[in-house]
Design brief:
The complex is a heterodimer of chains A (about 300) and B (about 400).
Chain A lengths: L3 E10 L2 E11 L4 E5 L6 H8 L7 E6 L6 H4 L2 E4 L11 H10 L5 H14 L15 H13 L5 E5 L7 H16 L3 E6 L2 H4 L5 E6 L2 E7 H7 L4 E7 L8 E6 L4 E5 L5 H10 L3 E7 L4 H13 L1
Parallel strand pairs in A: 3-7, 3-8, 5-6, 6-7
Antiparallel strand pairs in A: 1-2, 1-4, 8-9, 10-12, 10-13, 11-12
Helix pairs in contact in A: 3-4
Chain B lengths: L2 H15 L1 H28 L6 E7 L9 E2 L2 E6 L2 H9 L5 E5 L3 H4 L3 E4 L8 H16 L5 H8 L26 H30 L3 H5 L4 H38 L12 H26 L3 H20 L1 H6 L4 H8 L4 H11 L4 H29 L9 H10 L1
Parallel strand pairs in B: 1-3, 1-4
Antiparallel strand pairs in B: 2-3, 4-5
Helix pairs in contact in B: 1-9, 2-9, 5-6, 7-9, 7-10, 7-11, 7-14, 9-10, 10-11, 10-14, 10-15, 11-14, 13-14
The chains are: A alpha/beta (about 300), B mainly alpha (about 400).
Chain lengths: ~300, ~400
């Protein structure tokens, strides 16, 4: 059974479509990327999933049913617009918000200590929220989202405003959630930031799905059959190379239809070049999006 | 535990922990205590002296030689104004009067004193009046007629029912004390409690907590828990005030005089008091929630909510008009109008009997307004909770409410 099932959902604001016939599903144990530029309809889709706004048409089911009070306890949601009670301490905030997810204060405090320790926030647990930095508050918000051990975690722009250290910390925690068999939905406009994490993605633009499926397969599909090489020596003419683009630190070689990357590597070595880096070029999600968005605007 | 109950508990505890709430709860009894203290000091200084006051007089008309002792004031006769002036300077008398020969035609009596005053003390004026009246009437009417002329009226009023029986509600100023205090506290509680609801919801909106909360609870649970939690805190505040009233009255009584025995609580007042407090609070709280929903900051919300909280306080401004015309059709209309009903009906209950149909209409419309207000607030919250920018206009709100 899918954790989330969205079927032909449509939502318009003042007759302007925000979400236009969107369908997708999310399974347990996967990280699902809901990606697209600002204003693409990602947050509207999530708010419909959370039953905060109603779709004009279409169906949404969470854990196989319409979102109910019981199923709300089984999910964790970190919205894009988020905050905490500024006058409460870190622990008071966690205990109150966890109680609304059906947790008792004793087990909340125990779990909170573990998570605060894991994120280096334990020394701050009795500080008031308004004494914390923005990054620290974000970590606490994330802890509030997962404290009740939800089966489905929805994170909307989870990395915005985080420094590189906290971004890596959060990525590690999200990866851990997948390893525990949870379903995680990562919604973001910073596509490159999440592509290393996601198993499957839905790319949206102007409320419509432009790409949906397994990330590896998508990347493979949009691969341009080229390799990236950083080397020492004279490259000269190499058989099977249809084109060459020089960059500051590397050269991208476009292969012809009959040549494989393996053959090119062998030929480069035979030429006596010192290879410092050799990799099959795969397009980033940004590049794929720009290509698709360019096509749709043509 | 039920989620609305969890929100209720959180809101109650957070509200009573607010510094503003604690200060306000204690401020009222403390201010009243201060007031009583000041009154005590003032009444102590204004209290008539127990020693005998001597007032001189020069009788140029003749015949003023009786009734020279009035309570603790003694009238001392002088033959000339010069002698009286010397006695005044020598502090032998505190003041002196000259009764001129033409007093009967002019009514003028000249008074001389060393004190600079706005108006002569009431006790002195009464004593002089009685001294003059007594001497003018002496020998012409019986002595007890003179006493009656001095205090001609002791009006005892009895209100009868339409069947001629003695009415259970007799009215009078002493009936106004408890309803007056209660109405004042009710208006305060309504204004402050709705301010707390505004602040609570406004802060959650400002701090971007709405979506987080609504991922755990429904809009209805959120509003119910919040309104009742803050309402309970408001009730606790009023309870502190109400409990402090008997102590304050006893204190006031010991300094002002035994008026506490004269205070009467109109029948059914407590039942209606509780009913109007609860209904009034609920109405203002749900409307505050609706206002908080469409505004993006606490300050903006408080400005907008001020428009309807004015109606709660307004009956107190017109207290004197109410006193003179308690059954005017204007008050009947505003007793049924839900915003002004709670405080106005409480005031009118103390002044005059409020007909049953008015009470039923007023409570019925209050209940309907609360239900309508709750539905409106839930819908507005759902529509506008995620709006952090400009406040929508009335036309836009109506359009969005219709389109859902």
């Amino acid at each position: 059974m899918s954790s989330v099932e969205v079927i032909h959902v449509v939502k318009s604001f003042a007759d302007k479509p925000a979400v236009d016939d969107l369908s997708f599903s999310v399974a347990q144990g996967e990280i699902f990327g809901l990606i697209g530029p600002n204003g693409a309809g990602k947050t509207t889709t999530i708010r419909m999933m959370m039953d905060i706004i109603k779709p004009d048409s279409g169906e949404i089911s969470i854990f196989g049913e319409k979102l109910s009070e019981a199923s709300k306890n089984r999910l964790g949601y970190l919205p894009e617009d988020r905050g905490l009670y500024k006058k409460l301490s870190v622990m008071e905030s966690i205990v109150y918000l966890a109680s609304l997810k059906g947790m008792n204060s004793h087990s909340t405090e125990k779990t909170a200590d573990v998570l605060l320790n894991q994120t280096g926030m334990l020394p701050h647990k009795w500080k008031k929220i308004d004494e914390l930095s923005k990054g620290m508050s974000q970590i606490i918000q994330f802890i509030v989202t997962i404290i009740h051990d939800p089966e489905l975690v929805i994170l909307d722009e989870a990395f915005s405003g985080l420094d590189p250290v906290n971004t890596e910390l959060l990525k590690g925690l999200i990866d851990e959630l997948r390893n525990q068999g949870k379903a995680v939905i990562l919604s973001t406009h910073q596509m490159n930031q999440v592509e290393e994490l996601c198993d499957r993605i839905l790319m949206v633009d102007n409320g419509r799905a432009v790409l949906y499926g397994n990330l590896r397969e998508i990347k493979s599909k949009y691969r341009t059959n080229s390799v990236i090489v950083d080397f020492e020596g004279e490259l000269g003419d190499i058989r099977g190379i249809a084109g060459k683009r020089s960059n500051k630190d590397y050269v991208q070689l476009v292969l012809d239809k009959n040549t494989t990357p393996q053959q090119v590597l062998e030929r480069l070595i035979q030429r006596g070049l010192t290879i410092r880096r050799f990799e099959v070029a795969t397009p980033s999600l940004n590049e794929i999006f720009l290509e698709l968005a360019g096509k749709s605007h043509e | 535990m039920n989620k609305a109950l969890l929100i209720f508990r959180h809101e109650f505890l957070q509200t009573i922990k607010r510094t503003g709430f604690i200060i306000l709860t204690l401020a009222l009894p403390v201010l009243a205590l201060l007031g009583i203290g000041i009154l005590y000091i003032l009444s102590g200084t204004a209290r008539p002296a127990t020693e005998v006051t001597r007032i001189g007089y020069v009788d140029e008309l003749g015949g003023f030689d009786q009734f020279t002792t009035q309570n603790n004031i003694t009238f001392i006769r002088f033959n000339t104004a010069e002698a009286a002036t010397q006695a005044l300077i020598g502090k032998d008398v505190t003041e002196y009067l000259v009764i001129p020969p033409d007093y009967i035609s002019t009514g003028i009596i000249k008074r001389y004193t060393l004190q600079k005053e706005v108006t002569p003390p009431a006790a002195t004026t009464t004593a002089i009046g009685n001294f003059i009246t007594g001497n003018l009437l002496a020998g012409k009417v019986p002595a007890n007629t003179i006493v009656r002329i001095e205090t001609p009226l002791n009006l005892v009023t009895t209100t009868l029912t339409s069947t001629g029986g003695v009415a259970s509600e007799q009215g009078g100023l002493t009936d106004l004390i408890i309803p007056g205090i209660f109405s004042f506290l009710l208006a305060l509680a309504l204004a402050f409690s709705s301010a707390y609801v505004l602040q609570g919801l406004g802060e959650e909106k400002e701090n971007r907590l709405m979506e987080i909360l609504l991922s755990s609870v429904s809009t209805r649970q959120l509003i119910t828990g919040k309104v009742l939690g803050i309402g309970a805190a408001g009730l606790a505040q009023v309870l502190v005030w109400v409990i402090s009233i008997p102590f304050l009255l006893i204190l006031a009584s010991s300094s002002i005089g035994g008026f506490i025995q004269t205070i009467r609580i109109p029948p059914n007042f407590l039942v209606f008091g509780v009913a109007y407090f609860v209904l009034g609070y609920l109405l203002f709280a749900v409307l505050s929630a609706a206002v908080a929903a469409v505004t993006s900051t606490v300050r903006e919300a408080q400005g907008l909510a001020g428009i309807f909280t004015i109606f709660a306080v307004a009956p107190l401004w017109f207290y004197s008009l109410l006193l003179f015309f308690p059954n005017s059709p204007v008050w009947v209309v505003f007793s049924i109008f839900p915003f002004s009903a709670p405080v106005l009906v409480m005031l009118r209950l103390g002044m005059t009997g409020v007909p049953a149909w008015q009470l039923i209409a007023s409570i019925g419309i209050l209940v309907l307004s609360i239900i309508g207000g709750l539905l409106l607030a839930a819908r507005l919250l759902r529509t506008y909770l995620l709006m952090y920018g400009k406040r929508p206009g009335l036309v836009e709100i109506m359009r969005n409410l219709r389109s859902g």
